[in-house]
């Protein structure tokens, strides 16, 4: 009873005193200095400039588990908190990223797909290298065994698909525990792809999960799929990086539908957002965007509710709507909603 009362009091304080609510930003990288992969690799000069900005800007770089635990327990995250994550465990993490982060004494987390490491595939770190990093304080977490998309169900019924997902997550977790002593249940969706069914299964296995849809983590973020800012891809310049790490989470209390999977015939998808009644962003200045289309209409439904629909169908595959609003201090409030768009139905045989 006392614990429930304390939680209720904390929730009241967070509503009444919005200044107590701050947001964390999770950065996502893949490769470092690997120019052959421009879509997923960041140049070393650009990476060093980003780290320098974090240091000079007074940001607090924390272990990812600290933000995950705050989400689980409902605790606020101190302002200007950043966690650094890297997906896939490529060799350039060991050769290029780790020395630069170690020199600053900064923690980071590597999400490992374990099968490529077990098979000794070129371009990936070895378990021995990861043990060396873990002994120095680097954290490792679950990216599945094979890195296959967990959304696709090639010839599988519901039971077979659920069994495969469990084998992917629990098999990878067992390897991480055996090789590196990993016990924390943190999981990054391969390719950032998830839907409500997959997210529910992952959460049911006890994992806090992470996507690749941009945005800070805030009080209303969902532990089934926490957002991360992909900053290692081509085209992320210094100004854009500074804007993203300074962003706050748009206080989206409800998103309908939450499920990213778009049913056949519902493209472009219709998104309804309800903002929480807290100080911060001006709802009248909310602007939303769709990839390849730029700004899209925002329909105000009354109060703090809005509806967003792209002007034209989104291309098949991964897509997103991004909504932002300026804050009084020049920092932006940010929310991205991912979509999984089905292929267009084929016509009748000619």
UniProtKB/TrEMBL annotation:
Gene3D superfamilies to which the protein is assigned, alphabetical: Glycoside hydrolase/deacetylase
Single GO cellular component term: extracellular region
GO MF term set: hydrolase activity, acting on carbon-nitrogen (but not peptide) bonds
PANTHER family in the record: POLY-BETA-1,6-N-ACETYL-D-GLUCOSAMINE N-DEACETYLASE (PTHR34216:SF3), PTHR34216
CDD domains in UniProt: CE4_DAC_u4_5s
Pfam families, A to Z: Polysacc_deac_1
Domain of life per record: Bacteria
Keywords for this protein: Signal
PROSITE patterns given in the database record: NODB (PS51677)
Subcellular location: Secreted
One of the GO BP terms on file: carbohydrate metabolic process
Chief location: secreted
Residues annotated as domain NodB homology: 80-350
InterPro entries: Glyco_hydro/deAcase_b/a-brl, NODB_dom, Polysacch_Deacetylase
Identification of the protein by name: Polysaccharide deacetylase
